[in-house]
User: Fold this.
Amino acid sequence: MDGSVDNWGMSNTLNADPAELAKFSELAHRWWDMESEFRPLHMINPLRLDWIQSICPVSGLRALDVGCGGGILADSMARRGADVLGVDLSTKALKVAQLHALEAQTPNVAYREVSAEALAAEAPGSFDVVTCMEMLEHVPDPASVVRACAELVKPGGWVFFSTLNRNAKSFLFAIVGAEYVLNMLPRGTHEYAKMIRPSELAGYCRQAGLDVLRTSGMEYNPLTQRYSMSTDTSVNYLFATQRPLKD
Assistant:
């Protein structure tokens, strides 16, 4: 495993919200605590990974996880046989991801502190699979991240996104319910204005040259305390997109 972390300085042009980075950096040491604020991510990770696998089995492929945080998805893709690079702009979260990979002896996973846009300029068309999960709603310019992901994937490769819809139901479930009633997430984790409608994300994908081929929803049942994949995209939803072989 490559344990190096590249240091990229913050600048006014970087597509990142310092407040968002600080928020997640403060919680970084709890990424792999299954009963912490990140418990929902651990609960949905098998579902989203199985969904990705059903469309594009990752074994033997070069995969990139944009906004990898503490490495929950990156680590699991590596354990499914992918050669994985996880990138993020939170130094603390990346150190936690590296430490976990060392302790768990996860093969073929590396982490870098670099933006998707900078990596796209450095290594376009380098990955068979790109994932960007629960990240777009935390950046100032999500369309820029989508473009970078499109540039990073090889022609014929897959790009997977997941984010939160922006509507009254999503506000009620994802913010009021999850953050204030059920206390599943820290208060302030999500901002309603930054949520993204599927039509908006589809537009970003088309503008970036990606074909949206599959969509799925994800629902939470507070009675059983379980998540499940569904056709309901009104709150959490996922896109499977593909870069055409010929742009």
